[in-house]
Amino acid sequence: MSIRFYTNDLLSRYGFGDGDLLVAFLSDHCLDDVHNQVLAETVIRYVIPTVNREIELLQPENWYWTAHNPIRAKKVDGTEVDDVGDNKNLALMPEFVDIEEGVILDIARRIHATA
User: 47 with 5: CB under 8 angstroms?
Assistant: First the structure.
C-alpha cells in the first residue's frame, strides 16, 4: 500500500490535509505524536526531488509546531508563494507522488525513537 502526496499541497497552508495527511495512518501504529516531523521529512526526501521546479521551503523552525501544513514552499523558481491564495501560475509537476507505507513507517520509527 502507498500514500498519495499531491505536489501542489506544498503551495498551501492547508495542504497535505491541513498537515494531517499521515495522522490516521501513524495513529494505527502509535506514532502519531511525530506526524508533523514525519510529513516534513517524507516530503523533503521523496516528494520535492520529483518536482519540476525549484522549491525554497519555509525555515525549519516554522515546520513542526503549526496547526496547519508544516511543510510549505516559500518560493517556487524565485517567485513568492501566497500560502492562502491562488497559486495556479506556480503549478507543480508531477501532480502527485505515491510513497510506500513501509518507507513512511521507517521514517516515523526513527524520528519517534529520538523524540
Answer: yes
Asked whether the predicted pLDDT for residue 62 surpasses 70, the reply is: no
Q: What is the C-alpha R_g of the chain?
A: 13
Residue closest to 17 by CA, chosen among 3, 30, 29:
3
Predicted model pTM: 0.93
Q: How many domains does the chain have?
A: 1
Kindly give, in sequence order, each residue whose CB lies less than 8 Å from that of residue 75, ignoring residues fewer than 6 positions away. 54, 55, 56, 81
Q: Which of 6, 5, 10 is nearest to 76 (CA)?
A: 10
Tell me the residue range of the domain where 60 lies: 2-114
Residue with cell 506556480: 90
